[in-house]
Amino acid sequence: MDALNQTRVTEFVFLGLTDNWVLEILLFMAFSVMYVLTLLGNVLIMATIVFTPRLHTPMYFFLSNLSFIDICHSSVTMPKMLEGLLSERKTISFDNCIAQLFFLHLFACAEIFLLTIMAYDRYVAICAPLHYPNVINMKVCVQLVFALWLGGTVHSLVQTFLTIRLPYCGPNVIDSYFCDVPPVITLACTDTHLTGMLIVSNSGTISLVCFLALVTSYMVILVSLRRQSAEGRRKALSTCSAHLMVVALFFGPCIFIYTRPDTSFSIDKVVSVFYTVVTPVLNPLIYTLRNEEVKIAMKHLRQGQVFFMKSCT
């Protein structure tokens, strides 16, 4: 054990997205703008929902939680990535690397569970509207959100344990721009095949099962829309299409990365950009541009007429 402690890696070196200095500057400017838009867009959605009484419903309660998770999720990787784009040597300490992958999996898993819950919420609202107030109320919403954070914490603890239990004595170069379990465990000084299989059985299964549940719920919703009025179909399709866009952008990369043990592709870094950078900035655009209620609420919020909306409706 003493010998292992003496040779343990104390820091990791990122290869980053590219070694082209000009491209790094361009990426820094582009990602900086996207990160600022992510923060501003999601904070605006949260503020709009909090200060608009008519939006105090389960659907918008979940949407505000999604915005909060997106802020946290992007903040785990983006600041370090932006710092790396301006640094010749991109490093992170061992402890900070472990912390980064812990919070990465915590917020990613929480978002997976939340998107699944949001699909269930839409399923009940569209397919069983008369039972909706009893099935989905604010008490149930709070319980579901507590459950998703608990599930995300357990998942993240498992991933972190699988990572830190391995010995790291060199090399210390990670072919990525952030710490994640798959690229980190490949640097371990031992056979990681079993650990890789455990990762797939954990992360991969969660992503795949939740994705299949989401697809199934939306298929049921689409079938049930035949019994809806034209206006009902339009509103339901608008809401569901927004959810499906988010699901495709987030679940696609997760399934691609976490269902392949002991395998890595050069495209992995590009795919990772989608769920760590692109999805958090697109969520506010998707949910606001396609949602008339949110757009109207934002207009009233900007005009200082938030609480007037309740009496108008």
UniProtKB/TrEMBL annotation:
CDD domains: 7tmA_OR4E-like. Its main location: membrane. Keywords: Cell membrane, G-protein coupled receptor, Membrane, Olfaction, Receptor, Sensory transduction, Transducer, Transmembrane, Transmembrane helix. GO terms for molecular function: copper ion binding; G protein-coupled receptor activity; odorant binding; olfactory receptor activity. GO terms for cellular component: membrane; plasma membrane. InterPro entries: GPCR_Rhodpsn (IPR000276), GPCR_Rhodpsn_7TM (IPR017452), Olfact_rcpt (IPR000725), Olfactory_Receptors (IPR050427). One of its GO terms (biological process) is detection of chemical stimulus involved in sensory perception of smell. It is found in: Cell membrane; Membrane. It is a multi-pass membrane protein. The chain crosses the membrane at residues 25-52, 98-120, 140-158, 206-225, 237-258, 270-289. Putative odorant or sperm cell receptor. Belongs to the G-protein coupled receptor 1 family. This is Olfactory receptor. The gene is OR4E2.
